[in-house]
Amino acid sequence: MNLKQIVEESDTPAGKAFDIIIQALIVLSLVSFSIETLPGLGMNTQFFHSLWWSVVTLTTVGYGDVYPIINLGEIFSSLVMFVGIGLFALPSGLIASALTKVIKNEEKE
Fold it and tell me: Does this model's pTM top 0.90?
């Protein structure tokens, strides 16, 4: 079993975590877009800017090129950063564990 198979197989914990990350990116993009385009603000935000923001914020990279304007968006961003730490720490451990098992099995053979 290699890394590609581990991620592609949705019945493995790493595959499920990968699915959750993709779903989280879509949901966070939609929520961010909804917050930043609230009526009366006159913001001209595109959905792809919200998608970029969610990727950068969820992965805790934080380039700073796209950021929330209103207070509600800033609060939401803070929550997304904490969720991002957990979402990426968990799959990293699962993938490392799966790869360790594969290496140990290869050494036994």
Answer: no
The more confident residue out of 12 and 97 is 97
- Other CB atoms within 10 A of residue 1 CB: 12
Residues 5, 104, 101: CA angle, nearest 5 degrees: 40
Each residue's pLDDT tens digit, 2-47 = 666 655 655 666 667 777 778 888 888 888 888 878 776 655 578 8
Three-state DSSP string of the chain: CCHHHHHHCCCCHHHHHHHHHHHHHHHHHHHHHHHHCCCCCCCCCCHHHHHHHHHHHHCCCCCCCCCCCCHHHHHHHHHHHHHHHHHHHHHHHHHHHHHHHHHHHHHHC
For the domain covering 3-108, report its CATH number: 1.10.287.70
Rg (CA), the chain: 18
